Amino acid sequence: MNERRAWVNQALDQFLPGENTPPAPLHRAIRYSVLSEGKRLRPILCMAACEALGGDPRRALGFGCALEYLHAYSLIHDDLPAMDNDDLRRGRPTSHKVFGDALAILAGDALNTEAFALLARSARENGFQPSVALAVIEELAKAAGFDGMVAGQVVDLAKQKEPCSAAELDFIHRRKTAALIRAAARIGALAAGAGKRDLERISRYGEAIGLAFQIVDDLLDEKESDRKNQSATYVSVHGREAARTRAAELCDQALAAIEPLGRPAEPLAGLARYIVDRKT
Predict the structure, then answer these.
(1) Left, alpha or beta for 193 (phi > 0: left; psi -120 to 50: alpha)?
(2) Which residues pair with 32 in a beta bridge?
């Protein structure tokens, strides 16, 4: 993970305009959020899925960076006063606290748009067939759009004002969190030329670890005392032990999905264990 994280950080630094590129305030805001310390889980997952199916992980690096652009946009917008109203992100002031609401919104808008430009450019520069480029672009759009992250955020906001059922909580996080993680795995698989059966395996894996990731985040967030919003969590709906059990079950499902891929899928298995074993 450390090696692949270094690849991603170097590539992101190269892909993004310099902070003094006009208009400088926009690019400073973008670099502030994208280059902040992070796990880079989604691009690492994208490359691992590509490698698991016999592809060159470096060919998926640009796709992974596009995923990180889109993830950064979602965090910038989620932190805004009209959304989750957070002051800190990864231990630093959130984008709107540093640059103001308007510039934070525009930085997120730019990253959302540029993610798709980077997908297209990376597909062209790495010699992918147009059909693969289109499939990759469609995957990211579906994960981000009106049946993906946006849908999850809309229901999440609504449920801050009323009770949230277990089914509604799953609806929220299968879209708000798991959709992009699933897309990262599928995009890596597509980069490797995955057939239908292998793509289905990778999809089951991605959906399982995506939901497990959110459950573990909820377990970790329970320890924080300064949460401003009242969003339902897996801990508040199911209880701590049931949430921990479900995360472990989802990890087992993910591992079972990729078991037929054998040794090349060991990095994917390691990522699944890493997600669930984070200290809770």
Answers:
(1) left
(2) none
The pTM score is 0.95
C-alpha dihedral (237, 182, 113, 55), degrees to nearest 10: 160
The per-residue pLDDT for 278 is: 81
| Residue 163: other Cβ atoms inside 10 A | 8
Residue 207 — pLDDT band, cuts 50, 70, 90? very high
Q: Which helix (H) or strand (E) holds 89?
A: strand 88-89
Beta strand pairing call for 92-93 and 88-89: antiparallel
**Domains in the chain, CATH or no CATH each:** 2-277 (1.10.600.10)
Query: Is residue 132 classed as helix, strand or coil in its secondary structure?
Result: helix
pLDDT higher than 50, residue 280: no
Q: Is residue 98 exposed (0-12), middle (13-18) or buried (19+ Cβ within 10 Å)? A: middle
- 187's CB contacts (< 8 A; 6+ apart) are 46, 49, 60, 63, 67, 136, 139, 140
User: Which residues are within 8 A (CB) of 173 and not within 5 positions of it... i.e. 6 or more apart?
Assistant: 152, 211, 214, 234
Strand partners, 88: 93
Q: 87 to each of 9, 94, 111, 218, how far by Cα in Å?
A: 24, 5, 21, 18
In the prediction, which pLDDT does 92 show?
94
Q: In whole angstroms, what is the distance from residue 219 CA to residue 280 CA?
A: 6
- pLDDT tens profile 118-138: 999 999 999 999 999 999 999
Q: What is the pLDDT of residues 155-166, one digit of tens each?
A: 999 998 899 999
